[in-house]
Write the structure tokens for this entry.
Amino acid sequence: MTHPELDALLRWYEAMGVEIAVDDQPHDRFAEFAAEAAKPRETPREMASQPARAALGEPARKVALAPAPMRDPIQKALSASAEDVVRAAQEAAGAAATLDELRAALEAFDGCALKRTASRLVFSDGDPQARIMLVGDIPGEDDDREGKPFCGRMGGLLDLMLASIGLDRGKVYLANVAPWRPPGNRALTPHETAICLPFSRRQIELVAPDYLVCLGAGAVQALLGAKDGIGRARARAYEYELGGDREPRNIRAFAMLHPTYLLKQPANKKYAWTDLRAFRKVIEPQ
């Protein structure tokens, strides 16, 4: 192949989400698939109870979701009933009484195919006791590598945005709707959103912030139910119903532009600055 052909191929691999050529150790994928296919299928209730069993000292088992012969892991995960998987996610999230238990529940949960393509779980960063919680839609490439949300250039811009109104990562709590990065940073499918949303909502309940900031259209639509694009959504006032174990209450919620979008469209930083100033007036009234 010529150099231009090789360059085009590498760019295509990158666009498809293929970012690591080899692992540190060789893998016999055929043996792995065969071993997983031989495992008994667990019910959604058993899937949800795995974190509880782990808390009692009983090791959690990986879940095989009705694999069929010659199917890859993603197809096997999708072969389970969509309703059953979402129900399992709801049960697993609802059983978590602390953020540590919720993280353990996500580590044990095998009902989302995104887990199989991501490098690691991207759970949170910042102060879990913070009054302000910021939620994006998906982890980025740097987040997937570091295991924390809002890393790399995107995170650097967010740090500057927070600093402009007197905040930093030590004063806020950061998370995403999806804790695993989709291949190639593509948008979440409706089914993936439905699976991840119970965990995201439970995370918000456990943090119990006074203010919720949704960054980007994906988070705004998933958590606030907005139908419009982020351009219109950011100009509106929202309330988020905070339920869970505590007495239900409504908290102020805000829609803002995602730092990744601002890196691609720097001219729109003026709108972000307008939103940040308005937000500062709310959290620090004069």
In short: The chain has 14 helices and six strands. Residues 28-111 form one domain. The chain has two domains: 28-111, 120-286. The longest strand covers residues 249-256.
